[in-house]
């Protein structure tokens, strides 16, 4: 689970960096930010699954 949390943190950092670039006018960064958001969503679903299993 620790590795999963580290992966989520890294994905969030990537998203934040790309989103900031997009705000500053870099259109390509918007595409990368949207892709990162989908990866974050998948990782969070996996975290939820692992977390529920661990609590049983």
Key phrases:
single chain; 56 residues; mainly alpha; 2 helices; 91% helix; elongated
Describe the structure.
The chain is an all-alpha fold. It has one domain. The protein has 2 helices and no strands. The chain has helices at 2-23, 27-55. The longest helix is centred in the last third of the chain and has 29 residues, at 27-55. It is elongated. The model has no long low-confidence stretch (mean pLDDT 96).
Helix content: over 70%
Distance between the termini: 15 Å
The sequence of SSEs as H and E is HH
Largest sheet: none
Work out the number of β strands. 0
Structural class label: mainly alpha
Task: Describe, in short, the structure shown.
The protein is mainly α. The protein has helices at 2-23, 27-55.
List the helices and strands and how they pair.
Layout: H1 2-23, H2 27-55
């Amino acid at each position: 689970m620790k590795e999963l949390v580290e992966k989520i943190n890294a994905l969030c950092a990537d998203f934040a960096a790309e989103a900031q670039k997009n705000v500053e006018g870099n259109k390509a960064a918007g595409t990368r930010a949207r892709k990162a958001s989908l990866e974050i969503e998948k990782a969070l679903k996996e975290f939820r699954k692992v977390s529920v299993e661990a609590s049983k």
